Amino acid sequence: MNGNPRSAAFKQKVAIEALKGDRTINEIAKEYGIHPVQVSQWKKELIDGAELLFGKRKRKGSDVEVEKAALERKIGQLTIEIDWLKKKLGI
After folding, report:
1. Overall number of domains in the chain
2. % residues pLDDT > 90 (the chain)
3. Which of left, alpha, beta for 55 (phi over 0: left; psi -120 to 50: alpha)?
């Protein structure tokens, strides 16, 4: 595995590589030893973050709703990571 899969820099590197489209999601996932779904999720998060950065997407709802949505995404991400680890460990 290349880099710490939990670091922001690692996630950014993988997401940018996926965004480029030079290789398939599966090829990237195999290279970095992560699940293809995780690569797709990080790619989506990068795109969503870029929209916020450049102001193309308006924030809907209150700050509580925005935080709730972020926490729900994080729960989904952690669920995927736990399922992947269980599969790898044979649980």
Report:
1. 1
2. 47
3. left
